[in-house]
Amino acid sequence: MQTAAASAPRSVPLSRLTDNFLDGTSSVYLEELQRAWEADPKSVDESWDNFFQNFTGKAASSPGVSGQTIQESMRLLLLVRAYQVNGHMKAKLDPLGLDERVPPEDLNPALYGFTEADLDREFFIGVWRMSGFLSENRPVQTLRAILKRLEQAYCGTIGYEYMHISDREKCNWLREKIEQHVPSKYSKERQITILDRLIWGTKFENFLAQKWTAKRFGLEGCETLIPGMKEQIDRAADLGVESVVIGMPHRGRLNVLGNVVRKPLRQIFSEFAGGTKPAESGYSGSGDVKYHLGTSYDRPTRTGKHIHLSLVANPSHLEAVDPVVVGKTRAKQYYSDDYERKKNMAILLHGDGSFSGQGVVYETLHLSDLPNYTTGGTIHIVVNNQVAFTTDPRSSRSSPYCTDVAKALNAPIFHVNGDDVEAVVHACELAAEWRCQFKADVVVDIVCYRRFGHNEIDEPSFTQPKMYQVIKNHPTSLELYEKKLIESGQISEETVKKIHDKVYGILSEEFESSKDYVPKTQDWLAAYWSGFKSPEQLSRLRNTGVKPEVLKNVGKKITTLPPSFTAHRAIKRVYEQRAQMIETGDGVDWATAEALAFATLLAEGNHVRLSGQDVERGTFSHRHAVVHDQETGERYCPLDHVVTNQKEEMFTVSNSSLSEFGVLGFELGYSMENPNSLVCWEAQFGDFSNGAQVIFDQFLSSGEAKWLRQTGLVCMLPHGYDGQGPEHSSARLERFLQMSDDHPFVIPEMEVSLRKQIQECNWQVVNVTTPANYFHVLRRQLHRDFRKPLIIMSPKNLLRHSSCRSNLSEFDDVQGHPGFDKQGTRFKRLIKDKNDHGTVEPEIRRLVLCSGKVYYELDEERERVGAKDVAICRVEQLCPVPYDLLQRELKRYPNADVVWCQEEPMNMGAFSYIAPRLGTAMLSVNRGSFGDIKYVGRPPSAATATGFAAVHKMEQTELVQKALQAQKM
């Protein structure tokens, strides 16, 4: 019976065979392999051919060495490989010396049959030089020398994890870099630069501690991050990177802002002293704490290049900024035509607890190689405190390292002792080289500590007494490096003192200047957004209608498939119907209206991006933006061909991964880069947006108020009660309305020429009922000189509803057409009753106000029962409330009961938001108040909807009938 080793195929590369060769019987296999090689070198894998040639020093068919000698050589090869795979587990990573790990057994030479007597024996190692082992040109070395180099390469203050990477080229590239690296390789000049940067990072924290006692989440214990990041950015710049987008948590943020991004120190000090935002910006938002703020600056590198750095503002949800940074980076790549991902790069900093504990970390990593989301690799730096707030690693993760999640993406991981500044610099530089070489993610895990606990006023000894007894007496990384350089004679104490004095002098000067510092608008607002209006600056309303000839032209392009394209017969019929809609101008449906909005914006030179789960076809099989050839599988997107020589990715529609948090964050970041883009995210079902609630809560609803950053991101959330159960009915409209910041009891200025209502509100929430209005609300996003997020409660059954149709004339800008009123063609915030009612209609007994698809059921029931004394108005824009139009309708029907009808339960939907505002409008025109509003809808409920079809039908019928009936409710 053959052994496992003996049955191994000859095609297996030498480097892939491991444990089998510890079996003593493997010599039989080796002898057979050698005989096969001697007979025909091509019969074995190339690596074995190289091995036998190098080992024997002879060509094939020459006598070989004994099986025993080959077996011994193979055991040595396994020992080398063990260091490459597990050497990091023996590395000196913990600066506090509290690491209790036991070195793995496979690093013990005795396991491979080597004894003390073998240490000074010479072994042939020429075969390994081709995979990077040992830089010296010495094919024969003693076992002692080999082990010393292995320990130096893999078990020093950097531990490398890379052998999990399946790509052999990448592994070999890293082996060369790792095994040829010599610690302390830096020249005296570089060491002085590193020292200077370390002094800046250390003195900055000391200076803040002297001047203020407030929380700042300082970097003490990981000051080496500053020279590490600066050298990393310098190296990236040398390799062609021109712009870096950075995202990070609180810890060390101020230090990174001041010393890496080069935010003016006087500005940071002014903010510490309670400085305000620039008066000329016109913003009256809330602001945020210092360690949440972002900024962007251009700065020179060590080698004389210039690079643009931007640090993205983020909330206390530690890793929520990750996808935002990646999305912003992707947008930068689009706008700079950086399709090779060379010029724009992302760096994300993490904490050890959050990197292993927060799911959005994996969601972000998961986007790294997806075609429409990749940025060509992100550099991840983990500031590994070895404790997450008060939780020890054994309680916060199930894996040996906090970085193990990155292995799923085949990312190399460099663990480095945070006290060894040169090691940190080398790991950071190597990460930059990897990212620029392979356009893939990489992780630098800086193992460090927090000198002052979670923040400067925390008492860490409550929960980590042993650790903080060690920290109390532990020298700083700066003290260790200064001692090393002085003792080695590389630098004098006098030179060190001069650097300290210089740094402290500059810090003091900046502190004095901060007392008179006046913030500038450019400190807060990005360059692309120059000229866009703040909430305090009036923005004139603009029409969104399009010339009929343009509509016809782009309409033809987006409804035409290539003659040679074999579309599915159902899809072909859909496109034929759309072409007919454009040709006749009648019955334009929802999907065609959307495509027209996208196409006309593209024709005007804007960038359009639609992303989300299954958005190419559409969850409800309505969009079909991408069509697949039924014979070849080839993809075709008509919206890629709206304009001649249309720029690559000018229109992007992309099915995303099954992620809400990560993908919505990505699209938010993308939308923040440039205002001349319509960026849309569509939830598969509206309730799926729950998975991205942190983005809605912490970024989208409040980002402008906190950080003065506008975004025009559109969120399409399918919503409507169709009997599909609790999870597929409601997009939780009430949550978005609850987060709206308009005042329920104050009617703002509503005169058209003076109205700033939308500008002053944090976002817009709409529930649109016609394709034309959908077309206009999308175009409105770009046809104004400010940006606001847009939440659309998009329909499901209205996508094909026979009454949910618009005429093409409602899209154009021709005076006198149905979409044109005295103000022009634009989005209708409220749609009045469809009947030709006059200015005052005293005979109408009931005014039913509603929003969304329930309108069609109400209208159908009104027609069925002939209730001509009932008026139905659609509130298309819920937030901000169209007070002027509500007042108009209340005056039109002076004797009517006022009813709010909704499908959702009373504690959900729009009722709790609309009722006080509707009451305010009623009070302003003497039509009663809040207490006079009659509610029709489902009763309060814990679940959003019933799961029983029969119950749903009964409830829906009852509420529709109740809304129209005559008696009091």
From TrEMBL:
<protein>
    <recommendedName>
        <fullName>2-oxoglutarate dehydrogenase, mitochondrial</fullName>
        <ecNumber>1.2.4.2</ecNumber>
    </recommendedName>
</protein>
<dbReference type="Pfam" id="PF02779">
    <property type="entry name" value="Transket_pyr"/>
</dbReference>
<dbReference type="InterPro" id="IPR011603">
    <property type="entry name" value="2oxoglutarate_DH_E1"/>
</dbReference>
<dbReference type="InterPro" id="IPR005475">
    <property type="entry name" value="Transketolase-like_Pyr-bd"/>
</dbReference>
<comment type="function">
    <text>The 2-oxoglutarate dehydrogenase complex catalyzes the overall conversion of 2-oxoglutarate to succinyl-CoA and CO(2). It contains multiple copies of three enzymatic components: 2-oxoglutarate dehydrogenase (E1), dihydrolipoamide succinyltransferase (E2) and lipoamide dehydrogenase (E3).</text>
</comment>
<dbReference type="Pfam" id="PF00676">
    <property type="entry name" value="E1_dh"/>
</dbReference>
<keyword id="KW-0479">Metal-binding</keyword>
<dbReference type="InterPro" id="IPR031717">
    <property type="entry name" value="ODO-1/KGD_C"/>
</dbReference>
<dbReference type="GO" id="GO:0005759">
    <property type="term" value="C:mitochondrial matrix"/>
</dbReference>
<dbReference type="GO" id="GO:0046872">
    <property type="term" value="F:metal ion binding"/>
</dbReference>
<keyword id="KW-0496">Mitochondrion</keyword>
<keyword id="KW-0560">Oxidoreductase</keyword>
<dbReference type="GO" id="GO:0004591">
    <property type="term" value="F:oxoglutarate dehydrogenase (succinyl-transferring) activity"/>
</dbReference>
<dbReference type="InterPro" id="IPR029061">
    <property type="entry name" value="THDP-binding"/>
</dbReference>
<dbReference type="GO" id="GO:0045252">
    <property type="term" value="C:oxoglutarate dehydrogenase complex"/>
</dbReference>
<comment type="similarity">
    <text>Belongs to the alpha-ketoglutarate dehydrogenase family.</text>
</comment>
<keyword id="KW-0460">Magnesium</keyword>
<dbReference type="GO" id="GO:0006099">
    <property type="term" value="P:tricarboxylic acid cycle"/>
</dbReference>
<dbReference type="Pfam" id="PF16870">
    <property type="entry name" value="OxoGdeHyase_C"/>
</dbReference>
<feature type="domain" description="Transketolase-like pyrimidine-binding">
    <location>
        <begin position="588"/>
        <end position="801"/>
    </location>
</feature>
<dbReference type="GO" id="GO:0005739">
    <property type="term" value="C:mitochondrion"/>
</dbReference>
<dbReference type="InterPro" id="IPR001017">
    <property type="entry name" value="DH_E1"/>
</dbReference>
<keyword id="KW-0809">Transit peptide</keyword>
<dbReference type="InterPro" id="IPR042179">
    <property type="entry name" value="KGD_C_sf"/>
</dbReference>
<dbReference type="Pfam" id="PF16078">
    <property type="entry name" value="2-oxogl_dehyd_N"/>
</dbReference>
<keyword id="KW-0786">Thiamine pyrophosphate</keyword>
<keyword id="KW-0816">Tricarboxylic acid cycle</keyword>
<dbReference type="InterPro" id="IPR032106">
    <property type="entry name" value="2-oxogl_dehyd_N"/>
</dbReference>
<dbReference type="GO" id="GO:0030976">
    <property type="term" value="F:thiamine pyrophosphate binding"/>
</dbReference>
